[in-house]
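Contributing: when you submit paired examples, paste them exactly as shown. First protein:
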Amino acid sequence: MSAPLLDETSVVSYLQSRGLISGKAEVETLTGGVSCVVIAVKTKDQNLVLKQALPELKVATLWQADQRRAIVEAKAMELLHSITPLSVPELIDLDEANFTLTMQRLPEDCTNWKVDMLAGTIHPTIAGELGGILAAWHNFGVANKSARDGFMEDSLFEQLRVTPFYRAVAQKNTDLAPRINELIDEITTQKTTLVHGDFSPKNIMITSELSPVVLDFEVMHTGNPVFDLAFLSAHLLCKYLRTTDQRQRDLLAQSATNFITSYHDNAQIGISKNLPTHAALIARARVEGVSQVNYLDEAAKTRVLDITSKALSNSQMTFEELFS
């Protein structure tokens, strides 16, 4: 059963009832997410962000998802903050009954990495730092069975990633389905570490010192590390294929290289040989799947479909060749 959704008129009394704020408060509804109510609340002592999971995601195609993902997100945020405290917000409160979590708000001068890159502000060093952060999480997951056991339930990963991305593309491309099914098998049966599950530029804020802070942990699960690597790489690939500006293309290709190189240099686990194919499949899903990006024109969509068809049909294609 869905919990009543909070809004600007009810959030202050809600936070007061939880003992999180007192006195006057400024309230602001934040935008950008499709899966949650997101509200900022500021008092003289506190600067908080509240997130409440929606029962149905705000996309063009019907996409329902279990609101329990808010509980997963809160527990994941708390764990990952303990590993990389400068790269993950601090969890303040979790209300499991109402699928609501409250976190410390980031500095308001932070920018969104996706928005920055689409505007042509591209710093490959950020991607390199993200490779190191992701490696730290994956290393921790491999070494800590108790942590893996805490995130073994992966139905949310099926609902939010496997079905709308992998299976949706397979249904539209029967010729590619056998290869896609092999990829599905890898990410759903070969489970070795903690996987963020939504390691995307839209979920990464950039501080004024050009340091990344990662958000949105609701798809965290024990799974295959190649998914996180491929998910971010796919977003960089879509942005690379979006533009015809050679300078931007070079910077985006360098970002992808920095990300994978930094991960390789810091991770205690290997990188799947199927990484290029996973990245291609996820990029293709952003054109054909349930959750499509809104920044590709028809020419760019054609470029995405062309390169991803080649990658899904050629298991020998290298990661570098995706960005060439």
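Second protein:
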Amino acid sequence: MSRLRNLHKSKVLQGILWLVPLAAVIYWATTQQAPKWPDTQSEWAWLAGALGAYAVVTLMRGERWHSILWTSRIEATRSDAYGLTVVGYAGNNVLPARGGELLRVFLLSSRTDAKRRTVIGTILAERILDAIALGGILLVVAYDLIKKLGSPSPLLVLIGLVALGVMALAAAYAWWRHRHHAQRLLDAVLPILLPLKPLLSVKGLVLLVGSVLIWLVEASVYGMVAESVGIHLGATGSMSVVAFANLAALVPAAPGYIGTYDAAVIFATNAVTHAKVPVSFLILLRFVVFVPISIVGFALLFLRYGGLSRLRAARQAGPEVPSLELPVVPVDGAPQGEPA
């Protein structure tokens, strides 16, 4: 029985969650034709445009975090906000369980007077903004698909509304029944929740608009990489693929979301284009989204933020920092990111 109770902590279970999608992707790759790389001037231009657009996305994420930090009265410099955003995404790409976020928390709290829990709150604010922005994009994509498929059955709409009502009533009852425990929990996490308060103001609306723009630009990255290998995703298709890929980041995965991210990209691209997805698309997309930011991030970690000694200190401080996972993707890019 003890083994069953600890199953969710099992390294074997986590390994299965990582290896099954990876094995499926490897099998898929071995059955495909040899990769077709960009071989015309226009295709190379699309790829260069994707690299440039992802750099813009990273800068936008850095500026958004800087705004959240200052709204939360954390006097971090813009250079630290930008630099640690890159370091964080690099860490997410090579460390399991979003270790890059832990790096951001530890390094920024050591360079300012901010408490670690408050810094965690600013990253949580980023995640919430990403979740809402991606949710809006998914609604647009779903609406487009519904138009293509025809109007939904009134009975299905009624069933959906009743199900939502039942879930809302169940949540309200659970809160009322355990309100004292919930209040104690709320008091314990108040330092983390304080940076979320500005999200309910006009400033929060501005940040949300910025988050939507971030994901739209990132969707254009996917579209441009696709064009560089002869695939036309279009605006809706690019949004669909970026949404599926970032939802895959919620699944416990190895560093760089190996397997889960790739499977989601293949599935979504195939669903949108109804054609075989070339291996070159997956390889080039991984290169654009993961490689440059990882190189720059670890260069910054060593040259500006103390290198491996800081990394080891951050890992030792890990148990003090609660999980930053949310049940919705934002993300390396992160997103990620990037993947978010």
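If you have annotations for the second protein, write them as plain sentences, like these:
The two ends are 37 Å apart (CA to CA).
The first helix runs from residue 2 to 5.
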